[in-house]
Specification:
Elements lengths: L3 H25 L28 E3 L3 E7 L5 E7 L9 E6 L7 E2 L3 E4 L7 E7 L5 E2 L3 E7 L12 E6 L4 E3 L3 E3 L15 E3 L3 E13 L2 E8 L8 E2 L4 E4 L11 E4 L12 H11 L2 E4 L10 H6 L3 E4 L7 E2 L17 E4 L4 H8 L8 E8 L4 E13 L3 E4 L2 E5 L6 E13 L5 E8 L2 E6 L13 E4 L6 E2 L3 E5 L6 E6 L5 E3 L4 E5 L24 H10 L6 H9 L28
Parallel strand pairs: 19-30, 23-35
Antiparallel strand pairs: 1-2, 2-7, 3-4, 4-6, 5-7, 8-13, 9-10, 10-12, 11-13, 14-15, 14-18, 15-17, 16-18, 19-34, 20-21, 20-22, 23-24, 24-27, 25-26, 25-33, 27-28, 28-29, 30-31, 32-33
């Protein structure tokens, strides 16, 4: 018979355990991460069987990698916290399981709890057995025991100790202070250094009390860059007794960034699956058009020193100067006739087509389908400031010619849409596919173009551009009958074998003249209508607004943008 001396403490421990388990179950129930994200429509499973695109495995030159989509059958949740981060819901860490034969994990996967379960992580198989090795040991990066947060007990973060000539690309997470053993199939592999390159913080996953968790990405990114996005993450801010060496990204040593990209036929299937639907604001006066509509309706080419003799632009821009740089020697402008000019300014949605640039990203493991949209005119800016809901800034913000774009980032492993980039004035936003709105019954993202400025957003409503969330330049988005189905009219202009670039894409000068507005005088006029004690705040707000918003000159074309050969610029 068990005495009370042993029985009562045992009952107390079981009581605490039961309460902790019940609390954890209460926390996880109803969290978005508990639901696996699925696309509303069918994925493109019937792609033409051409090349190495969509085969599931990519060879980096002796190191093969596969992309594991996180689900209940491919990953098990190791640990969660339930506060901090997005919507103060915390985040969760998952360990890849049931890997393909002879593949080994490179790290663990993490994502915020306020998102449906969606994402992937790479696992690796060595063609040459020496390209992957188990770690010699692990050292503790830190743990969460000292964090006063709601969590599934403490998490212990370990980093592999690799043999000289090898690097770690991910961490190992346990819920026990016992050091993990580098035993078969349980370890986080070390990768030969020639298959790695430097990484940096990507998206912030979670932050609280000075501790933060970031996804990792290669530092150097672009069409010729070799860095591969692995899907691992790093902890920062944990107390550690030793300096923490960096984690690395993978590297494609084959140097052929196009070998696993989709063919032209495959690209068309992908674009028909994921082509966006773009809504323009009900009050939008300045709609897009095709480039040829702009040219054939009277657009003129001007040359410095010969301004009195503008030249009509031929269809497809065949008489535009090619190459060179943005040297202000040439620019485009509207027809001289006022009636025709006003007509061209307003665009023509019925003629509009989008222009696709296809490019490799992350060492050829992803494909970017960049969707370029042209608007003949960018309207004036409107300001929200304190009690003034909408203050028109007159001519400020207006310019001739406006190029905007949306980028679809698609996995070359399986043809799945991963992220969408929304261009927004001087930068943009990169959104995961699980966070987007889609056309009913399909996989076409819904996009909203802001009133007059044509910046792209994933949701309707009001977004203010400025130094705080209460004042700034207005970006107004809403649905209307003015909608552009990008899949109904498009042209591939660059990036695929056999595609001949149209002449206008190699015109590197401005698509509109430089118009001199006296911005300082205009702003001074607006400031005068304000009470004197808030004028300082008004000028401070204006100083925080990117110059592109207050711009006076037409932009250059798509090929002159840094993102043409580089990665997107996002906040």
């Amino acid at each position: 018979m068990i005495s009370d001396t042993y029985f009562k403490p045992l009952i107390f421990v079981l009581f605490l355990f039961a309460n902790q388990l019940s609390w954890a179950q209460t926390q996880t129930n109803g969290l978005p991460v508990e639901t696996i994200f699925t696309f509303p429509g069918p994925l493109p499973t019937t792609l033409p069987d051409e090349g190495d695109f969509g085969k599931g495995i990519i060879d980096l030159g002796g190191l093969e990698v596969a992309q594991v989509s996180i689900s209940n059958s491919t990953a098990q949740r190791v640990w969660s916290t339930y506060e901090g981060g997005g919507d103060n819901m915390g985040f969760s860490i998952f360990e890849p399981i049931n890997l393909p034969p002879n593949f080994f994990k490179l790290g663990f996967y993490a994502q915020p709890n306020n998102q449906k379960l969606f994402g992937s992580i790479l696992v690796a198989r060595s063609v040459n057995l020496s390209n992957l090795l188990p770690p010699e040991d692990y050292f503790e990066v830190g743990n969460t025991t000292s964090l006063d947060i709601k969590q599934d007990g403490p998490a212990y973060v370990w980093q592999p100790v690799c043999l000289n000539g090898y690097q770690a690309v991910g961490m190992f997470i346990t819920t026990s202070p016992e050091k993990p053993l580098p035993s078969t199939q349980q370890y986080t592999s070390c990768v030969r250094s020639e298959f790695t390159e430097a990484s940096e913080a990507d998206a912030l996953l979670w932050a609280i009390n000075g501790v933060s968790v970031f996804k990792l990405r290669p530092i150097i990114r672009g069409t010729q860059a070799t860095g591969v996005y692995t899907g691992t993450f790093s902890f920062q801010g944990l107390i550690s007794s030793t300096p923490i060496p960096p984690l690395f990204s993978l590297k494609n040593t084959k140097l052929d960034m196009y070998s696993c990209m989709p063919s032209e036929a495959q690209t068309r299937v992908l674009f028909q699956t994921y082509s966006p639907l773009i809504y323009f604001h009900p009050d939008e006066d300045f709609l897009p058009s095709s480039v040829d509509w702009f040219f054939t309706n009277g657009a003129l080419l001007y040359q410095k020193g010969n301004e009195s003799n503008p030249v009509p632009i031929q269809p497809n821009g065949t008489n535009l100067p090619q190459g060179g740089s943005n040297d202000d020697l040439f620019w485009l402008d509207y027809p001289v006739d006022k009636t025709q000019k006003e007509m061209v300014k307003r665009g023509d949605l019925s003629s509009t087509k989008v222009y696709l640039h296809i490019k490799p990203m992350f060492g050829g493991t992803f494909t970017d389908i960049v969707v370029w949209i042209f608007c003949p005119f960018n309207g004036n800016a409107n300001l929200k400031f304190l009690f003034i809901k909408r203050l028109s800034l007159g001519d400020i913000g207006e310019h001739i010619g406006d190029w905007e774009h949306v980028t679809l980032r698609i996995s070359n492993f399986n043809g799945m849409l991963w992220r969408v980039y929304f261009s927004q004035h001087s930068g943009g936003a990169l959104m995961e596919a699980c966070d987007l709105e889609y056309v009913d019954g399909g996989n076409k993202p819904v996009i909203y173009s802001s009133l007059h400025g044509h910046a792209m957003f994933p949701k309707p409503g009001l977004v203010l551009l400025g130094n705080d969330g209460n004042n700034g330049i207005r970006n107004d988005m809403a649905k209307s009958d003015n909608v552009l189905d990008c899949g109904s009219g498009y042209e591939v202009i660059s990036g695929l074998s056999g595609v001949v670039e149209p002449p206008w894409i190699n015109y590197f000068r401005k698509w509109g003249p430089q118009v001199r507005y006296n911005i300082d005088k205009s702003l001074e006029g607006f400031a005068k209508i304000l009470p004197w004690f808030i004028r300082k705040s008004f000028y401070k707000l204006i100083s925080k607004i990117p110059v592109e918003i207050l711009g006076e000159e037409g932009p250059t074309g798509p090929k002159d943008k840094l993102s043409w050969t580089g990665d997107e610029k996002y906040y």
